[in-house]
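note to self: dont lose this again. the chain is below, predicted strucutre after it. 736 aa total, dont forget to put it in the shared folder this time
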Amino acid sequence: MEYKLYLQHKRIIPTATKRRWSDSQKGFRKHYKTWLQDPMHQDATSNCEEESSSHCNKPPHHSTDDTSESEEEEWDELNTTLHHNMQGESDNENEQNWHMTPPKDPTMDVEGHGNMDNNADENPRAVKDKIYPTARITKEESQLSILSYALRHTTTKSALGDLLDLINLHCPEGTNGAPNSLYMFMKEFDCNSFEIVYICPTCHHYFGNEIPANCASCGSEPGDKNSLIESGDMFMKLSIRKQLEEKILDSEFKTALDYKWTRVKSSPDSVQDIFDGAMYKSVDLLNDPGQFNLSLTWNVDGVPIFKSSPFHIWPIQVVINELPPDMRNKHVLLAGLWFGASKPEMNYFLQAFVDECIQLEQEGLLVQHRGQSTQMRVFNLVCVCDSVARCSVQNTKQFNGEYGCNWCYKKGEIVAKGNGFTRVYASQQRDARPRTHSQHFDDVKRAVETGTCVNGVKGPSPLMFLMYFNMILGFSFDYMHGILLGVSRQFTTLWFDSMYHGERWYLGRLVTTIDQRLFKIKPPVNITRPPRSVRLRKFWKASEYRNFLLFYSIPCLIGILPSDYLEHLLLLVQATYCLLKDDMSSHDIDVAEHLLKTFVSRFERLYGKCHVSFNVHILEHAAQSVRNWGPLWCQSAFIFESHNGTLQKLFHGTQAVPEQIVNSFSLFQSVPRLFSTVYNGSVKKTSTYFVERMLRGYKLATNCVKKNKHNISGLTYTKSTNTKGGVSVTRAKHSC
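---
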């Protein structure tokens, strides 16, 4: 009680009193160290947060039943003195040793791991690199943790700068702490790995990195770089070479590229992946076990980024085919980014991308493979996109124009529909011969000479300069847009839209009954979206249309939809299932092709000629696309559409949107390299688990955090798991 009285009356503490208190502290400290070394009491120490502070800090001999009230009070007084600085003489060394139960790390509680930091055996250099002498993390670990936090929560630059200031307030003055400014923090990371490519604001002629005084095409003065950036007459180009070089440094990524040689096939002729397609096999440099080459599948599509503005981004995204299917969606490369209120001039937008692809085809890049340096060449083989983007990339007429099909010469015809007209592709039309690569070049030549469209071809495309890219078969059939968001959505409109209330197929009056059946279905865990009412069909995602077509439609519509319409629907369900199998034979593909052709031919008789849309017509080309490029799931746009959603989260505000997206993407891509550099296979520390928790589930930052043999920064590779772009099957590789 002496100490409290002196503090209350603010009296000067006599030297004798301070000496008596110091002796008391030394005696207790000696006893406390002995008690702390006892293993039986170390477990009790970790549970102190569950008890009150006055009891959890007591040594055992003070907590027995025969302890007197006076001893309890003495302990309370002494415990109070341990948490205050004494006036007058103080022993700093003693104060540093008075660590009662250390606070528990919340990250450890979440992950369920103990504290694995071992500060006792750290070398002097590790101590020097710490943000301050008694800290648990080094400067590099601190920066990586801050970066992972900022990426996880999509922190703005202003918020990140404030976070750095806040961290520095908690660090002792004169220590490493956090960088003093956002500029110094970002300087530690390579986030400017892009080029700005300029185009003419008048005629959209391609300039490249330098702006001429006058445009060579129209003769106008384009202006300076700042004016072109402000007007949006430019786009971002990212180097595929640099992204590949950084990923190749990861030994696990490099090992995964041998997947096509290590996989086990049920039979030599079975079709299980893109490697079994005829077009892939036609490239000898990709089928030689002595060569270490790669092939690419890419996509370009418009993504709206504002709800009240017409501005879009158009990213060029690339996937490496040689990776295992469960890893492809975790290593998507970004090759270019267009931002504007209108569609890009596709020929100019693709020019920079094609130039680098040509360089990768011819020169490749030097890598270490199997203990020796080898030249790895990269081939651009497949383009996956919807019908709108496909026509722009191929430089042909849109699907609603004459000769709008990208794979055959069917012209189509105009018929009345509702209050207007539409172009349909009836199965009885003649001249449905398939297009070929050589004939496309002839059509391009004639279109350039005459200045008119020839068989739907407007003119040349930069893709024609790629040696191994087929201008017809290089565009695969995308079942996400063709079947799910195309024919399946069209079916739900025909069945439930009141516009067709007088037709035999109309089911709008039985929506309640169908919903009751739908809600009784309990899908397995690998179907991530539960069934939603058909009244909400305009909000359905592609995966929901996939689930409805393959799993729900027949049980929900049997006995409700007329039998001839139900049998017609079964043709599409069975054919789609066959082409999505993870192991199919040539006979399966032939059966699916026959089912689809029968489906298309009956469509006109059942639903009318005006409903034979372009999406219905291109079903006839689906089976051939599988012969060329493997099952439908490995040539779908699910990967790219999912990644589009990620890109939408990489910017804040409305200024310099493409720069924000590209910088954030580069930061995400740098995380694996930083992670391996900072931790370098060492024992996991507190900060390691924090970074894992921040980046778990983020596809852009994958391959940096691993747990056992699974990559916990993305979809877990487990058996019979299929979450994106495929159906419920027995192989985890359908996760793409």
